[in-house]
Specification:
By secondary structure, the protein is α/β, with parallel strands linked by helices. The chain has one domain (15-110): Rhodanese-like domain (Oxidized Rhodanese, domain 1, 3-Layer(aba) Sandwich). It has helices spanning 19-23, 39-42, 81-92, 104-110; strands at 6-7, 15-17, 31-35, 52-54, 72-76, 98-101. It has a six-stranded mixed beta sheet with strand order 1-2-6-5-3-4.
């Protein structure tokens, strides 16, 4: 699967996907969306992307069995930092096709893209 990405400025070997491009992929069932925020953030002010699954960042190491190593994955957080760090971690242990949502839910909401409950 190919789509436009950019190199993350802060995390080596992490690719960012911009929210507009990501939103065009929401109906693609072969992409797994993982939100790494806390459950309070997931249901809070910024809400969450309808197709996303909540796995808080600190639980990722214990939930590896729930994350397919080779499927395309888009990781989400509030601003894009925790999700980029998660991508870097997973790639370091052999996961492929990990993408960071650039700007996180802050940017997603600024662009008025669809969220669950809004």
């Amino acid at each position: 699967m190919t789509f436009k990405t950019t190199k993350n400025a802060n995390y080596e070997n992490v690719n960012d996907i911009d929210p507009i491009t990501a939103s065009e992929l929401m109906n693609n069932a072969s992409i797994t969306w993982i939100d790494v925020r806390s459950s309070e953030e997931y249901t809070g002010e910024l809400s969450h992307i309808k197709v996303s699954k909540l796995i808080p960042m600190d639980q990722i190491p214990n939930q590896l069995a729930d994350i397919n190593k080779n499927d395309t994955k888009i990781f989400i957080c509030r601003s894009g930092a925790r999700s980029a760090k998660t991508c870097q971690y997973l790639q370091g242990i052999g996961y492929t096709n990990c993408y960071n949502l650039a700007g996180g839910m802050i940017k997603w909401n600024e662009l008025q893209l669809p969220t669950e409950g809004k």
